[in-house]
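Pasting as-is:
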Amino acid sequence: MFAPLAFFSLSLASAFAFPLSMRQVAIEGKHVGQATWFNASLGACGITNTDEDMIAAVTMGIYDAYPGATANSNDNPICKRFIQASYTDAETGQVNKVKVRVTDRCASVPDCQPPFTYNVDFTPAAFQKLAPLSLGRLDNLHWEFVGEGEEGDAGEAGDSDETDDTDEET
């Protein structure tokens, strides 16, 4: 009589007992989440950045599940990957884009933990390419990984006008 309830409880408990990084997370492809901003410092990739750098932190679900990730966060292959992100201003319809490098793992605030897998945390300089800092949070951020992130690959982070043509070729 209690077996179905026990099975359901066990199934539900196991869904939350394992971190999102141990569950299936779509890494490649296009994602939709929220954008926030943070003050940069030493990131999970072992790189020290400033608020003027065009970098981002991805959620722990993406960072930890990235193929090749190990216990040493400095060696994660996600480090220095580029993200192409866009946000459409609801009032004007203007699409703003930015290209950033991943150099950090966002884990300390609730917005970076499950179920918020596809949120991205930007430096102030990068966030301002999308919208004013005063907004604080942007819904419907569209983003995807582009390039492999090695020095010289996929151009420099920052304004992303040069990548507009390549987005539609695939």
